[in-house]
Design goal:
Number of strands: 9
Structural class: alpha+beta
Distance between the termini: 61 Å
Order of helices and strands: HEEEEEEEEE
CATH class: Alpha Beta
Oligomer: single chain
Organism: Lactobacillus helveticus CIRM-BIA 951
Strand content: 25-35%
Helix content: 25-40%
Protein name: Prepilin-type cleavage/methylation protein
Amino acid sequence: MITLAICCGMMLIGSLQLKKYQNRLVFDNTVKEVTAALDQASRISTIEGHAVTVIFSENQHYIKLVGGGHEKHVNINENIDIKGLTNFVFSKTGRSAPRTVTISGYGMKKAIKYQMLWGRMAK
């Protein structure tokens, strides 16, 4: 009986660690997806000379990049919330006003400071 309890306890701990790892993986991939989408929007605005608007739908959990005849749709996990994307526009030269985009979910949070110049993040 004791052996059975120990085995069940070890399996339960392993499954909890796996769930935590899966959540971390989803969160990290979402951060990378959002960063890549914003970088791409800045590059498109610089190369093609058109302003690009970033639209985030909190209800439907997606980011849409619109401008210069291009439209990109990036789906976001329902458990992840993004703040700081309202009125986010890249000018036709690839510039954007400085702002902080905060991505949170699964008990994790990451703040990314953006100031884009010529299609690249300012260092």
